[in-house]
Specification:
Layout lengths: L8 E4 L9 H16 L3 E4 L13 H11 L23 H13 L3 E4 L3 H13 L19 H9 L5 E4 L5 E6 L3 E6 L7 E3 L7 H11 L4 E5 L6 H10 L6 E5 L15
Length: 263
């Protein structure tokens, strides 16, 4: 694999949902050691937008565990740097800005479906032996409702989420480990980018932060491979150059189940 001449910048971006996983530590080491070998930098970013899974003091434990393992980041929450803040809950205005841009450019849309409507849709699709993903052509959103109606819903304070409009075509990207990957848009859900409480999902926040922090190589576990088509679309739609992707094989137990031990 030929490395770009652009200065390498990697990141490790854990969520404060508990103690550090062994697999997470391995990912941190891959990012740190690759960056150091290439004369680049490695950033620590805390991705704390999922408040339902937030664990008190987990962030401090993560940082201490990484220090214990000898992973000394160049930028991060306890280190500083010129691309902060390095905690996602302190960067909300950025995610709203780019969500609005995606809507304005026609790449995302408002969806007003209630949880009951979504449950009914999924149940119907399951009964039809179909993938229970969001069917934008049949639901209540700014693509199906008259403009006057969805604007009135917004003005009245109706709850909504912002969804990414996935194109019904092949989405292609390259992975350092996997090679060329092609996934058809029909097989991908219209990802929620902003939740009804205004919090961004991982997908939007991750891409915005990686770009603004100058990350050149995204090295992470293979469980994120199915989400990568959504991420490359966001890069393309926002007019940004894609980083290099490398999805690491999972650590497995002797019985081939996923290793889930925490350090």
């Amino acid at each position: 694999y030929k490395i770009s001449m652009k200065k390498v910048a990697t990141r490790f971006a854990p969520s404060p949902t508990g103690f550090l996983h062994v697999g997470g530590l391995r990912t941190a080491l891959y990012n740190y050691l690759f960056a150091k070998k290439m004369g680049g930098s490695c950033v620590l970013r805390i991705e704390d937008t999922d408040r339902t899974r937030f664990v008190e003091n987990a962030q401090e434990n993560l940082i201490e565990s990484l220090k214990w393992a000898g992973v000394n980041f160049d930028e991060g929450p306890s280190i500083g740097g010129d691309k902060g803040p390095y905690i996602q809950s302190e960067r909300f205005e950025l995610y709203k800005k780019y969500s609005d841009q995606l809507i304005s450019d026609g790449y995302a849309y408002y969806a007003f479906d209630t949880s009951e409507e979504l449950d009914a849709m999924r149940k119907r699709l399951q009964e039809q032996k179909k993938d229970p993903k969001y069917v934008r052509e049949e639901m209540r959103n700014s693509l199906t409702l008259p403009e006057s109606e969805w604007k009135e819903l917004l003005a009245s304070g109706e709850k909504f989420v912002v969804r990414l409009k996935i194109p019904y075509e092949d989405i292609k990207f390259s992975d350092i480990i996997r090679g060329d990957v092609t996934i058809n848009g029909h097989d991908i859900d219209d990802q929620v980018l902003l939740k009804s409480d205004g919090f961004p999902t991982y997908h939007l926040a991750n891409v915005v932060d990686d770009y603004l922090m100058g990350i050149t190589h995204v090295i992470r576990g293979e469980e994120w491979l199915p989400s990568t088509p959504k991420h490359v679309l966001l890069y393309d739609y926002l007019g940004w150059s894609r980083p290099e992707f490398a999805h690491l094989p999972l650590l497995l137990n002797p019985d081939k189940s996923k290793l889930s031990k925490r350090t």
